[in-house]
Design a protein that fits this description.
337 residues; mainly beta; AttH-like fold; eight-stranded antiparallel barrel; 0% helix; 60% strand; DUF7064
Length: 337
């Protein structure tokens, strides 16, 4: 694959693990401090995309919560913004959700999520452990300074339990990616479209690929592969999203990434669940849980794992919430499969 002039080499900065604790928000408006977890348990065919963010907004501090859980019988979704309460600032340095349905804490190297939705008889306890180094690999000139200057994307594995309608599922061999972001984030005023494609096959292979089209018409791509606790940057990237007729939802896609050491990977992403569409600050964000097969073209090695194929598409910079989506869930509540 030929080098692409828009691909920016990702240089990595080691960060202390204390960065995983909640930040005290400055007085700047639009500051956000967030944690994200994407996971899939192939043994039980369950998974989720979760985001919990504390935001400084002009009208008052808020908690943004995106809960998306795939169960064997359907999908539960909650998208909301609630006033930030004192009790949401956990003594451990963790995050509360504004309504007691979700907490996130970092303890002893573990990222612990607890979610409880009593009306749905749904309870989740999940623990993510990193399988890559604790580094920020986002090139600062690739992303506008109005979309969270600090960023970690780290592959991992998950364990835990999920109970739904009296049925309990033991999560023993799950795959995951976590995201940690902080800084000013103006959402729909910062981005016209983006792709965030990230996955984990355990310690042997993890991948993060990003394409960013800013509201100022800046355009860049970057990414890296994590293998055996080593990070190698991409010098060339190609991303192809398979889009539905709604021009919003994706059905996975294909990525190619060539690293600075000469290795190249062709990665096919195939959906394992309906897509989650989140409407937040006038921006529709699509997250599609996928299995992936990564083929290393030089030595012929294959890696099999799971991850997320995320996209947004707002080329006209509009603010209308989508009302029609294909093979996706956008409204809060439980949707049967």
């Amino acid at each position: 694959m030929a080098a692409n002039k828009h691909t920016i080499l990702a240089g990595c900065v080691n960060l202390d693990e204390s960065i995983n604790l909640r930040h005290e928000a400055p007085r700047d408006k639009d500051f956000q401090d967030s944690v994200v977890l994407v996971w899939w348990d192939p043994g039980n065919s369950i998974g989720g995309f979760h985001r919990l963010g504390h935001e400084s907004n002009p009208e008052g501090n808020k908690v943004a919560l995106w809960t998306n859980i795939t169960t064997p019988t359907g999908i539960f979704k909650r998208t909301q913004s609630k006033p930030l309460r004192k009790k949401d600032i956990l003594p451990s340095g963790g995050f509360g959700s504004g309504d007691d349905t979700c907490t996130v804490e970092f303890k002893n190297g573990q990222h612990i999520w607890n979610i409880e939705e009593p009306d749905e008889e749904l309870k989740l306890h999940i623990v993510h452990k990193d399988t890559g180094p604790h580094v920020d690999c986002y090139p600062k000139r690739a992303i506008t300074d109005t979309f969270a200057a600090g960023h970690l994307d780290i592959p991992g594995v998950v364990t835990g339990t999920m109970t739904h309608k009296g049925e309990t599922y033991e999560i023993k061999n799950g795959f995951s990616i976590r995201d940690r972001g902080w800084g000013v984030r103006t959402w729909n005023r910062a981005v016209l479209s983006h792709r965030w494609v990230a996955g984990s096959a355990g310690p042997d292979f993890g991948v993060v690929i990003v394409a960013w089209h800013g509201a100022d018409d800046s355009y860049s791509k970057f990414g890296w592969v994590v293998s055996n606790n080593m990070v190698k940057a991409a010098k060339s990237i190609d991303i192809l999203a398979y889009k539905e007729d709604d021009s919003l939802t994706n059905r996975g896609g294909k990525t190619q990434i060539e690293l600075v050491d000469g290795k190249s990977y062709v990665i096919e992403w195939k959906p394992v669940s309906k897509a989650f569409v989140t409407w937040h600050h006038d921006l529709a964000v699509v997250d599609r849980l996928c299995s992936f097969k990564a083929f290393e073209t030089t030595e012929g090695k294959e890696y099999h794992g799971f991850g997320d194929f995320e996209n947004s598409s707002n080329m006209h910079h509009g603010s209308r919430k989508p009302s029609f989506v294909i093979d996706a869930v956008i409204e809060t509540g439980f949707t049967s499969t």
